[in-house]
Write a structure and sequence with these properties.
Distance between the termini: 73 Å
Largest sheet: 4 strands, antiparallel
Radius of gyration: 43 Å
Strand order of the largest sheet: 3-30-29-28
Shape: elongated
Length: about 1200
Amino acid sequence: MASSSSSPSSSTHNHQPINHNLLNLLLTSINHHINSLISTPKSLKLLQTKCTSKLNTLTQHHSSILFDFSEQSILSNFYYGIHNVNDAIESKCVEKIQESVNMLQAPASLNENGLTAGISNGFLVCCSYFYLCLVSKVQGDDMQVAVHFLQALVVAPWVVRCDLVPELYRIVVESCIVPLGDGFGDGFEGVRRGAMRYKAWLMYHQVMCYGQSPLLIKHTSHENIRNTKACSTSYSNSYHQYHHHHQNFVKVQPIDLQHNTNAAIVQSSVSKNVYETSSVKRLQDLLIEEQSDSHSLYSGTTDIGDEDFEEYADEFDKSLRTLHIVAEQQPEAAISTSKSSEFWNCLDDEKSIWENFQISKMEYAKGSLSMSDEILFSGENSYRVEQAEIVEKIISKLCFSENLGRPANDYLDDDDDDEYDDSTTAEITTVYEMLANKPGLKYSLLKDVILDQLLMALSTSKEQGVTRASVSILASLVSSNRSVINEVKKKGLSLHDLANALKKDVYEAAVLIYLINPSPNEIKSLELMPTLVKIICSSSCFKSSLKSLFVTPHSASLMIIQVLVTAFDYSTNTTHLAAITSPKVISCLVNVPRNGNLEELISLAAILVKCMRFDGQCRYHISQFTPISPFISLILSNHKDAILAGLEFYHELLRMPRSSSISLLQQLREKGGIDIMCVLSLAIQQTQQEYKLLAGSLLLQLDVLEEPADTVLNREVAIETLLESLICEENSDSQQLAAFILSNIGGTYAWTGEPYTIAWLVKKAGLNSMLHKNIIKNIDWSDDTLQEHGTEVWSRKVARHLIKLGDPVFYALKKGLKSKNKRTSRDCLTTVAWIGCEIVKGPDDLRCSACDILLNAIEQYVHPGIELEERLLACLCIYNYTFGRGMQKLTQLSDGVRESLRRLSSITWMAEELLKVADYYMPNKWRISCVHTQILEANYNGNGAVNSLIFYRGHLFSGYSNGSIKVWDIKGQTMTLIADIKEHKKAITCFALLEPGNCLLSGSADKTIRIWQMFEKKIHCIEVITTKDSIRSLETCGEMIFALTHSHKLKVFDSCRKVKDVIKNKHVKCIRSSQGKVYIGCMDSSIQELVVGNNRQQEIKAPSKSWRMQNKPINSISLYKDWLYSASTCIVGSRIKDWRRQSKALVSITPEKGANVLAMSIVEDFIYLYTTSSSSHLEIWLRGTQHKVGRLSAGNKITSMLTANDMIICGTESGLIKGWIPL
């Protein structure tokens, strides 16, 4: 916004009249010089070069810099706006003139104190106004030429003097500004003050002579003067006024608000002597025009077209001039009492409005203003004269806009700005309403004056008080008459002006921005989010509370925020959401909607839903801060959009731990009563498919809460709605949503909104190993949610409701299990699993019926290659559905299913139990398939060897010799890199898992151990442990961290990170832990067992006693159930208890002669290993028969190996990662 603030003293000077000879000299000098400039093409070209030279310099020196889009737009408008002005002057093209005005408005509205792409805003604003001055000259608007030039002088007088028109600057300063008195013209600040004073007076004369020739300019011939709208840079061609020569002009002065003797103070009445000293001329004449002669010209309509206006222009002008001559011939005292009767008649209709207004004003002034008997009078004439006086007083305030931010009169203290704002706003709003209610051109003209002056004050003033008053008045006008918003939009109300006002804490601007209803992209370009958040978090919205506003700044901000977080692409929405997801902002957001305001509640619900989806932690804060009653009112309303918003809000909010969701459901049931159940039942029947499911889900949960006998019908309707969508493949979205609801309606969630039903179920299936748990994605196994007992009770209650419907439920789930949509089939498997936990306790007939329908569909999920959690769920389902009489069904399982169950037996006891039962009914000689198929391959060159691999939180982590850690997401047979971390300075050598806190450990050659943790799906280093030697290997047992160093020393770090050495008399080569014990392979081929609890050490394998060959180190130790295998020159294995007895090994495998086994891993039937003689191949040996059955080529030297979920994965020296599964 281009302006300069003025001091109180300068504000006072502005009200002292300027000699009209000086004003005429100013106008003449400026117009003469500008006319000369546009008549000289060479001068115009030189001026254009000066103004655009900085842009050319910027392009040459900063061509590589990427500027903000809004900055590029402003500079582009500035550059082409100037070029278009020159082209328009040469070609005299009207279209180019208007196009130039539109372009120059953008740079002209900048804050002059800032920078745009490194260029001073003062320079851009000053040049823009100067070129608008040239445009006004082309349009023949001499007064506006001077106003624009003075605005350029106010913004940057040094630019005018040095770059634009030095000669005109000298003439204006020496001839016009210096004569104003002391202080004016002294330096640039004095020039600015003088320019501001001249500008205010010119604007005042423009308005007071609205629709007539400026009284300051004596025309020597008849001219057609274009109508000027006194505060707009957009020019309307909708009408023209024809004016005639005037010879004797009356000097027009504004009402001086600083002196009580001349002040036109708005009271219930005005004393006669006030009118004797007031100069209410042209505006009174405009209002007092004889209605009898011209009533037919505009009665019945407020919109006058060009042709209608031109037809009556001369008659209207004659009436004005006649009244003007009469006014000059009569004494001024008589003017106030001898107006024509027609004027009084034209104001009769407004009498009641003004009487009410005066009563309110008297109440407002009570206690501040003393009433005097001598100023009281009655009579129609005095009443009507007072109205005209009020109109002029308002116009005076608007022209001298700094008065908008100051007290109304000397009776008010300086601290009463708030009262003034209310008073002025009420004043202008009442006048505007009066003018709006009267048909006729003259009233339309006065309305335009008010709006134009408000827009000018908004766009040019830098004083917060003036801006606040302008915005408050506009907001009040719009609130009382919604059509006003269309009028100000047509007049060019700038969103950027409102945005700048909003950023200056003029919060009422938010109301106008909302009512203008700009497009989402326009709102985004304003960059309002920080300011909107500030408004939301403010305790009081604005200084002067305008109770008439039907939209408050808080609520307008709320609804604008809704657009910013919902209307764009994911990236943009999340950027905006990041600003409002803190607990402080959320606690303020939920208190914004006013009671009963559905529109605001709908906006809030939409915002909160987005917040919960963006940042799951918001869900907890929303549940704590949000009052429940307003959102119940959304569902209970008769408004369709409100009901849908309420359903979506509660669907998202109820994705919380089961104990908390039960508490929320109880509040819903208590406060919603039977009404909410009825509304949900109707919503199931009437809304679109998605919301039918949401209504059915909420209805079922509320019904389960109390299980009333009289709501069986509701329960059945809700369940049938979910099942109908589940079997409908035509609408995949509805099918997927129905499957999701069913899978978790009997389970639980984390506070992040992540479904934890699967995690809760696989724990029931016996999953205990941290290594296996971390193969499953998106589960924090340390979350207390998984320990809640209430989940079990709730699940049983919901399951009882579902299975009461019998076979239709099982058939629907069977169809869902066979869905081609992976997510739908997975969710149906989850539903079958938690229902099965209740079926196993039910009657045999029901269980057998469910088993007959579902078993064949469940079998497919136990095979290798399926996600581990799905294999475990399938195992749980088979165990529950074949319990009791159904056990004989196990004999029907295929050999492949039975083999898959056998491979799961090392993970879950349920698989082992199922195999025992199957072998009891039908003994089977196992057929082992040794065929492996490659399913994974990923290569990331340039990072060195893959030294270590591990699964953590469902993702594969790989450590490289250059110190980087890469995180891979595995979906089916595809590996996708999702993170690349480089915090270690040297090679990563090993990984391990720390159970407390479910943390990841990484060891490195840089002598550090880093502890990592996953927060909001991002990995963060939370601790660094420094050692004196490089780390070779890591293992954990409880809170203890065992670190094997490069010098073969074993160090132990406790929970306080105190370190001590263990096995001091041995050189250690490898370590492995299990069930509170650590097994240590040593360089002398011995194996030591360390019990962590009591620190008891035992040697379970003595060193080899051979005088013929040197002892070989134990390179690798593997544990399988209760067996321990060690690898050196050969692989030997026995039960751990046999090792303790120093018994002979039960298993012995010798690879190629002379080769050492570098590493090995065991997966059920197979032993995988690689040796020094075949370092690029994985050898496959059968564990039971100790026969080599094949090998897998890694393509390069193998440097790491990992087995997980029947997969074997290896990393190579070249950075290649490969993975296989047995068929």
